[in-house]
Specification:
alpha/beta; CBS-domain; 7 helices; 8 strands; binds adenosine-5'-diphosphate
Length: about 180
Amino acid sequence: LEAKEEFSHKTRAMDVMRPRKSDPALTVITQDTMKVEDVESIVSSTTYSGYPVVVSPTSQRLVGFVLRRDLIISIENARKKQDGIVSTSIICFTDYCPPLPPGSPSVLKLRSILDLSPFTVTDETPMEIVVDIFRKLGLRQCLVTHNGKLLGIITKKDVLKHIAQMANQDPESILFN
Ligand code: ADP
């Protein structure tokens, strides 16, 4: 049936990415304004494998991607071994960290664990192409942007679920979805 063809070709990254419209916003980390305690609370209140790092909460411009396990290990190590790292220390992923008022606790620099070029697609990218990219590049996750702003994330599992859904759809549900 032609409708099926059309449907499967029309599924785009925005239809598969998280968060869905009704979901809470994407969990992100800012590049140079969050404290150690802020990041610790994000890591303990969520189970995601990683977090996009953005310029600021308002800009949502993507800076990179940081893995949950790298964050946990680095913060733990810094708290144990690095002088002056406390709950209120600012975490900084940038090259040059912003100057802080005298007497502020030491800054925790984590640029080394940041993936500076995570794979991204735009929200309009057909899922066919996204699936192909995941296969060919062996991606674990891919970020979704619109006009340069971060919108969402698609993980390997999201892609696998999407493929399974496409395979299980009967023609009726495709036509009336
Ligand atoms: P997996 O998809 O393998 O379970 P995750 O635990 O990282 O991997 O992600 C679980 C779900 O949450 C996925 O549907 C994914 O799209 C979404 N997700 C992943 N990272 C984030 C994030 N930082 N903020 C919001 N949602 C996320």
